[in-house]
Design goal:
This is Four helix bundle protein. There is one protein chain. The chain is an all-alpha fold. The protein contains four helices and no strands. Helices cover 83% and strands 0% of the residues. Helix 1 (6-28) runs antiparallel to helix 2 (33-52).
Length: 118
């Protein structure tokens, strides 16, 4: 793992938290549908960032980072639903939601600056 790159590190740590949240939702709340969507989008962020690190061109890099940005946005959506429906408490959800928003901001900045360079 490229621990020197903040977005790589943050997305990996976020994925670990999403996996633990998924486990909690399945075991404690017996919720399987929304939590699976959260798991997919929340772990996809880091996977796409990792793929972008090996991009073949700036356009390929931009594409992968753009997908990661979309996945971060989708993750916010699932977290919002899980909080509104009381599957996640406000405390549980807000921390994850805050991290997801931070990742969105980081990715948005990366996408914007990469577009300017192309």
């Amino acid at each position: 793992m490229n621990s020197e790159n903040p977005v790589v590190k943050k997305s990996f740590q976020f994925a670990v938290r999403i996996i633990r949240c998924y486990q909690h939702l399945c075991q404690s709340k017996k919720e399987f549908v929304l939590s699976k969507q959260l798991l997919r989008s929340g772990t996809s962020i880091g996977a796409n960032i990792r793929e972008a690190q090996e991009a073949q061109s700036k356009k390929d890099f931009l594409s992968k980072m753009g997908i990661a940005l979309k996945e971060a946005s989708e993750t916010c959506y699932w977290l919002e639903l899980l909080m509104v429906t009381d599957y996640l408490t406000s405390d549980e959800g807000k921390s994850l939601y805050s991290d997801s928003v931070e990742l969105r901001k980081m990715l948005s900045s990366i996408v914007k600056s990469t577009k300017e360079k192309i």
